[in-house]
Specification:
Length: 291
């Protein structure tokens, strides 16, 4: 008798109480699901407009309580109807009523993923609330990174477009003679279109850029016009570079290997730009004489 008395410690008793409480909460969820099933059945039989009155007079439920119980059945009923526990929702059987309610805020596919990744049944209410909060924050961060990546891509496209535009507008083939203003105006469009592809390809492949002659410029406001264009392109590059570094910073904490890959790609592009702009336009080379 004394041995049995010694084994019954407050710690053992607390463990037994907690186990019974946990089992009771699981039973409560199963019961709530069954009540929700019967409420849906009754609602289908009751005339429109009489549902709330029936709830109050027949089962003393508020409309919100009935909705919650029916939602529990709709979301979790399949797991309890599967007597062999073979459904994909089987982990739900281990949840308490409170845990099941907290998880109602997740779409079904995301809820299954969350259950697979977390020991929800072993969490307290506060722990589960914190885990759901952390998940929402991570999801929000991921969406922000996706938006930043889109902005980065757009910014890089802007850089490439600005560089290509500058090259196309300032470049003509070496063997084109200087023409009168009228002739130059009519030929500039066709010359730009034929050189744009070659210019862009040369930049991307790090090949030496061709030597070009500029057409005669008689507009006295031309220097200010081209200076303003330079400022606009420089501002575009600056904005895109800031977005680039922001995206790389986020990638560093999410996927360092992918970050390093994207950093090297950006570095290669920036080195090409820096090398190209170092001496621009390039010195004129003599025409090659074909024999």
């Amino acid at each position: 008798m004394n041995d049995l008395s010694t084994e019954r410690t407050p710690l053992v008793i607390a463990a037994e109480i907690n186990m019974i409480t946990q089992q009771t909460r699981k039973i409560l969820l199963a019961s709530a699901v069954e009540i929700g099933r019967r409420l849906k059945e009754a609602k289908s039989m009751i005339n429109h407009g009489e549902w709330e009155k029936w709830l109050e007079e027949s089962v003393s439920y508020s409309l919100s309580t009935a909705r919650r119980l029916m939602q529990l059945y709709e979301e979790y009923g399949a797991s309890f109807l599967d007597e062999l526990g073979l459904s994909n929702h089987a982990p739900v059987r281990d949840l308490t009523y409170t845990q099941a309610l907290l998880l109602l805020g997740l779409p079904e596919d995301e809820r299954e993923e969350f259950l697979a990744q977390n020991d929800v049944a072993g969490m307290t209410k506060l722990e589960l609330q914190q885990a759901l909060k952390d998940r929402d924050l991570a999801k929000q961060k991921s969406e922000e990174i996706q938006q930043e990546n889109k902005a980065l891509k757009k910014g890089l496209e802007g850089i490439n477009s600005a560089i290509s535009s500058l090259m196309v507008q300032s470049v003509l083939p070496e063997n084109v003679q200087r023409e009168s203003p009228a002739a130059g105006a009519s030929s500039s469009v066709s010359s730009a279109s034929t050189t744009s592809t070659t210019s862009t390809t040369s930049l991307q492949s790090n090949a030496p850029l061709p030597t070009h002659n500029l057409k005669t410029e008689i507009d006295p406001n031309a220097p200010a016009k081209y200076a303003e264009r330079c400022d606009t392109c420089r501002a575009t590059i600056s904005t895109a570079f800031f977005e680039l570094t922001t995206a790389l910073t986020n990638l560093h904490y999410l996927d360092e290997e992918l970050k390093e890959k994207k950093r090297k790609e950006a570095q290669k592009l920036l080195e090409t730009i820096a090398e190209t702009i170092k001496v621009w336009p390039p010195p004129k080379k003599p025409l090659k004489v074909m024999r």
